[in-house]
Design a protein that fits this description.
Bound molecules: zinc ion
Strand order of the largest sheet: 2-1-4-3
Strand content: 35-45%
Order of helices and strands: HEEHEEEEHHH
Number of domains: 2
Number of helices: 5
Helix content: 10-25%
Structural class: alpha+beta
């Protein structure tokens, strides 16, 4: 197993596809399991699916095209959690890093809080000495 394989997961999904007899490419597709049993989250989807099973939907002949299998590769977080990461952006919309639930605290913890929550011009402005002298750098750091 290469380092790349370690962070890639194959996700397999299935769709039950029905196509109108007289209109190729048009019809209905339902998320389903391996056996073709649909996952129907909405009443409207259920009504459509039941229509499809009768062979007619909205008065049109519809054909059962069977189960389509889709395999897609999902990249996992490189922290090794096995979770799918998402991108985090700072308050200005600048990309910072990828994180998952496991590493979000660690990774975002490296940034100053105002980077994440937003800062105003007041946070950015250097203090200006009243006599116009340059600000002396703080050498403690
Ligand atoms: Zn992670």
């Amino acid at each position: 197993m290469s380092i790349t394989d370690e962070f890639v997961k194959e996700v397999v999904t299935y769709m039950r596809v029905f196509e109108y007899e007289n209109e190729r490419g048009a019809g209905c597709a339902f998320d389903c399991d391996e056996d073709g049993t649909p996952v129907l989250k909405f009443a409207e989807a259920r009504a459509n699916y039941e229509g499809c099973l009768t062979g007619y939907l909205h008065g049109e002949r519809i054909i059962d095209k069977g189960i389509r299998k889709h395999v897609k590769e999902v990249f996992l977080c490189d922290c090794g959690s096995g979770e799918v990461p998402w991108r985090e952006y700072d308050a200005q919309g600048i990309y910072l890093c990828k994180v998952c639930n496991e590493c979000i605290d660690d990774r975002l913890g490296r940034y100053r809080p105002e980077i994440l929550t937003g800062y105003t011009q007041a946070d950015v402005d250097e203090p200006i000495e009243p006599d116009g002298e340059p600000v002396i750098a703080d050498d403690r750091y």
